[in-house]
Amino acid sequence: MRIGVLTGGGDCPGLNAAIRAVVRRADHYGYEVLGIHNGWAGLLGEGSIAPLSVRDVSGILPLGGTILGTSRTNPFKNPEHVQQVMANLDRHGLDALVAIGGDDTLGVAAKLYERDVRVVGIPKTMDNDVNGTDYTIGFNSAVTIVADALDKLHTTASSHHRVLVVEVMGRDAGWVAVVGGLAGGADFILIPERPTNVETVCRHLERRRQMGKDFSIIVVAEGAVVPDLPTLEQSDTDQFGHVRLDRRNIGELVGREIERRTGFETRVTVLGHLQRGGSPTLFDRVLATRFGVAAVDYINEGRFGFMPALRGVEIVPCKLSEAVATNRRVDLTLYELAQLFY
Ligand code: F6P
What we know:
By secondary structure, the protein is an alpha/beta fold. The chain is about 40% helix and about 15% strand. The longest helix is centred in the middle third of the chain and has 22 residues, at about 140-160.
């Protein structure tokens, strides 16, 4: 048996831990692994496809990013590209494929499975918005970085008696903002799932001042819905049709408006790609390892069209069609929990 493995979409810590686990588990069964470089682009001739041995993956467990490279290439944009992907799978004698990615990469995998490609997925994305799993690889590392940043921003906010607005990633889901903000003691969190006027934030900040709290930390998700703020329309999209949310500058807009309406000195920090960098947390290393092993076990059992999912403490098989049917939006009970500490 020869298995191909690729990483697609935005990188995040834990990808290498998953690749290592795939290779090690495949070796256990006596299967050969080929590493496909640069996501789906690698199957379109835009990246090499080369053997990946146990020796190649030695030492990569704590390494951020992905040794295979990644891209946001969508072969389904062009029917000829789909044929090319299928032909390349054949040409390299790949009997099975492991696609490590978020909803876009897994969406391509689900469509290939409908065309009889023997594929399994592994859910990763710092956004944590893949349906069917409690956690995706990369989320825990990202929110750990957010919480650490909030700790650091607290001391400078408090010294200068300022409002600090912190913009975090997460696309159309508020997971990073809510969990990062909860862990980092945010004084207000703005997310896509709970539209909130900037006026409400200002009134809250004024109440805090009256209570003697002379600094505040506001976490803003990049996709936050703030109805009383004119946000920049953005038309720049990637191959999966996602708009560039970083160009909305929502953090800057919120910060500017808070300062204008309250007169409180305000600064804005955009955490950006820092949230996807560095070494994976212990949680992500273990999750990625469990997912990688389970994915190869599914291949060994002939269980294609699935991905391993974390539900509670168990790893369970989840259909790719279920995983990509919808985006998993934030648990609002967590948001309400964070609100108790504003
Ligand atoms: O999907 C992961 C993510 O980090 C989103 O949170 C963010 O909107 C997007 O990727 C940024 O993409 P890029 O790396 O292409 O700038």
